[in-house]
UniProtKB/TrEMBL annotation:
<dbReference type="GO" id="GO:0016020">
    <property type="term" value="C:membrane"/>
</dbReference>
<keyword id="KW-0342">GTP-binding</keyword>
<dbReference type="GO" id="GO:0003924">
    <property type="term" value="F:GTPase activity"/>
</dbReference>
<keyword id="KW-0547">Nucleotide-binding</keyword>
<protein>
    <submittedName>
        <fullName>Raslike protein</fullName>
    </submittedName>
</protein>
<dbReference type="InterPro" id="IPR027417">
    <property type="entry name" value="P-loop_NTPase"/>
</dbReference>
<dbReference type="InterPro" id="IPR020849">
    <property type="entry name" value="Small_GTPase_Ras-type"/>
</dbReference>
<dbReference type="GO" id="GO:0007165">
    <property type="term" value="P:signal transduction"/>
</dbReference>
<dbReference type="GO" id="GO:0005525">
    <property type="term" value="F:GTP binding"/>
</dbReference>
<dbReference type="InterPro" id="IPR001806">
    <property type="entry name" value="Small_GTPase"/>
</dbReference>
<feature type="compositionally biased region" description="Basic residues">
    <location>
        <begin position="172"/>
        <end position="183"/>
    </location>
</feature>
<dbReference type="Pfam" id="PF00071">
    <property type="entry name" value="Ras"/>
</dbReference>
<dbReference type="InterPro" id="IPR005225">
    <property type="entry name" value="Small_GTP-bd"/>
</dbReference>
<feature type="region of interest" description="Disordered">
    <location>
        <begin position="168"/>
        <end position="190"/>
    </location>
</feature>
């Protein structure tokens, strides 16, 4: 029987940017659970996805999830300048929650590209520059409504996790990440 690698992922961003819709699009037809099993680069993977609410009242739960995640999908709404300005704050929350932040792979997602022609407030180049400033973090534009780049965002995140130091421990069933001290902070993405 083939062993399945399990990856704990979180999705963060301001309220209303489409985080929940992105997750639901990925896991549709899976009984509503926020778990998805798929094959990525010839390896069977199970994604346990935690959709972090953007609202302040969920901050304690958000901190707990951020400490134990293997990777983070940072989402903003390309039709909202404010959500773009806030997305770095959500990423910083993950970095603060994990002492060994250099091993927290991240993918930056600009959602609602189906509305880009008439309502775009954030240029694609701005998103790409922000991702690049996060140590080469991958950047994608998506539409949860039209299902554009939904699977790709999670596949890229798993690839970034695999490329990060310490990935072998994530493949052990039931593994929980433990932060290590003494490393510099940053985002390591492929």
């Amino acid at each position: 029987m083939e062993q399945t690698a399990t990856y704990r992922l979180i999705v963060v961003g301001a309220g209303g940017v489409g985080k929940s819709t992105i997750v639901l699009q990925l896991v549709q037809n899976h009984g509503g659970a926020l778990t998805k099993q798929l094959r990525i680069d010839h390896e069977l993977c199970r994604l346990d996805i935690l959709d972090i609410a953007g609202q302040a009242e969920f901050s304690a739960l958000r901190d707990q999830y951020q400490r134990s995640c293997d990777g983070v999908l940072c989402v903003y709404d390309m039709t909202s300048r404010n959500s773009f300005d806030e997305v770095a704050w959500f990423r910083e929350g993950v970095l603060r929650a994990q002492e060994d932040a250099a091993t927290v792979p991240t993918v930056l997602v600009a959602n609602k590209c189906d509305l880009a022609d008439n309502k775009r407030e954030v240029a694609a180049q701005e998103g790409a520059r922000l991702a690049e400033s996060w140590t080469g973090c991958r950047f994608l534009e998506s539409s949860a409504k039209s299902r554009i780049n939904i699977d790709e965002a999670f596949v890229e995140l798993v690839r970034a996790i695999r490329a990060a130091p310490g990935d072998a421990n994530r493949r052990v069933p039931g593994h929980r990440r433990r932060a290590k001290s003494g490393r510099s902070r940053g985002c390591t993405c492929s």
